[in-house]
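Page 42, continued from yesterday. The earlier attempt failed because a stray header line got pasted into the input along with the sequence. Redoing it now with the clean sequence only.
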Amino acid sequence: MYSEKVMDHFMNPRNVGEIENPDGVGQVGNAKCGDIMKIYLKIKDNVIVDIKFKTFGCGAAIATSSMATELVKGKTIDEALALTNKAVADALDGLPPIKMHCSVLAEEAIKAAIEDYKSKQLASSK
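This time it went through. Structure tokens are written below.
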């Protein structure tokens, strides 16, 4: 049912936790399935230098959160915004169709954290 990569990221998730004084925070959830993802970003010179997540949900939700953080860490904001749920699922060697919504949540959480960062930057420049 799940690929070895999904199981690895579920059993040994990368980048778990919170960042103190994050530059951006994004939280998304799906009331239907109960998965909630929260992403914390630390950004320096337009590059994501650190990223952490906290996810309440199923194994696929944890695995997609973990993989998504791995995919954007060290990338520019624009590169991170280009991340798609398909790229997250592909990096995990696929997800069962019923679990694809987890990869959508991972994409949305990263984008929400970046939007939070951008809105804070805009506010501080005024």
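Notes: Strands lie at 24-30, 35-44, 47-56.
Reminder to self: strip header lines before submitting.
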